[in-house]
Amino acid sequence: MTDTLTPATPDEDRTMPAVVYGLYLLALVSLVTVFIGLIIAYANRSGAGPILASHYTFQIRTFWLSIGWFLIGSLLLVFGIPLSFVLIGIPAVILGVFIMGVIWIWFAVRCVVGVIYLARGEAYPRPLNWLI
After folding, report:
1. Is residue 130 domain-resident?
2. Does 83 reside within a domain?
3. Residues 12-53 pLDDT 10s
4. Distance between CA atoms of 17 and 61, rounded to whole angstroms?
5. What's the domain range around 59?
6. How many helices (H) and strands (E) would you count in the chain?
7. Residues 67-71: contacts with CB under 8 Å, at least 24 apart
């Protein structure tokens, strides 16, 4: 009788992308874990099959887009807070807080949608897209 069990291929082992999504979701309250997740995603992307590679690409892109927009919001705050004492910077402060809040929600939604696709065993359909 032959053994029907075969070793798991990278396409079947969804553990590491799930860990990265978990670290990203944990980063919503503790920013340090997002960097660990990014390192894991970069380290595993080259050896992954097409399904998991799409998730790793999506995770890496999510990180860089969120960092870029977060920096824009932070710069608006840095320049807007001192200028708000003379009332010129109030719109910049409001816009900076708004951008940072929207990015926080956008990051969470992208992670949850990625987890849903991963749980189904599907590749992420648009990993290079800006939105969801």
Report:
1. no
2. yes
3. 588 999 999 999 999 999 889 999 999 999 999 998 889 999
4. 14
5. 15-120
6. 4, 0
7. 69/99, 69/103, 70/99, 70/100, 70/103
Residue type, 121: G
> Which residues are within 8 A (CB) of 112 and not within 5 positions of it... i.e. 6 or more apart?
25
Spatial distance between the Cα atoms of 58 and 114, rounded to a whole number of angstroms: 8
Do residues 62 and 107 touch, judged by C-beta distance below 8 A? yes
Residue 86 lies in a domain: yes
State the pTM of this model.
0.85
Amino acid at 25: L
Contact residues for 55 (Cβ-Cβ < 8 A; gap 6+): 17, 20, 48, 114, 117, 118, 123, 124, 127
Q: What are phi and psi of 127, to 5 degrees?
A: -65, -20
Taking only the tens place, the pLDDT of each residue in 86-116 is 888 899 999 999 999 999 999 999 999 999 9
